Amino acid sequence: MRKSLLFIFTLAACFTQSVVFANEASKEHVKGDATKGKALSAVCAACHGADGNSTNPDWPKLAGQGEAYIIKQLHDFRADKRAEATMTPMAKGIAADEDVLHLAAYFSSQKTKPGTANKDKVELGRAIYKGGVMDSGVAACSACHGPTGMGNWPAKYPKVSGQHAKYIVTQLKNFKSSTRNNDAGKIMRNIALKMTDAEMEAVAEYMSGLQ
Description:
Blueprint: H1 2-26, H2 34-40, H3 42-48, H4 67-78, H5 87-92, H6 97-108, H7 119-131, H8 142-145, H9 165-176, H10 187-192, H11 197-209
Helix pairs in contact: 2-6, 4-6, 7-11, 9-11
């Protein structure tokens, strides 16, 4: 019963934020041009790969990521709402806000290369992703990120399937410590705060293997 209520409350929170973001998105009339974005992406390729599939697990894959999510993160870096030693100056180096839209359109249009998962951690990761952790109040990841990890693009919830497990763990720990605090309504901070390192690693491995 508690598990069901936890899922329902999380789903309600995600739905509320989805409506807010969807209404904001409906007001946006300017769309990015993927062709222009490709021309601008050369500087991004060093870390994220030419097609957005980074090979270094410290840097996220951008290929196939939600366009609105990429736009939000770049704007947050540019406005000091999210800080990271490498990305903050890179984002601020983008010449214009219009170029942010073009870059997002390009990387969003690319295909994510499948990730791999540590088989020893997948079972625990699957349980957390689909059902949360009832005893500690950790909500199911699938409520916001979807059953296959594709995310919720209008709500700016990111795609997590195929993402590097190491990068996911780093972000969860950043949310837990509030080093990263640009999540709407503190949704991710509240969840990560209740997670153990082992749970973070397990769910990250599961997400990495999702396709």
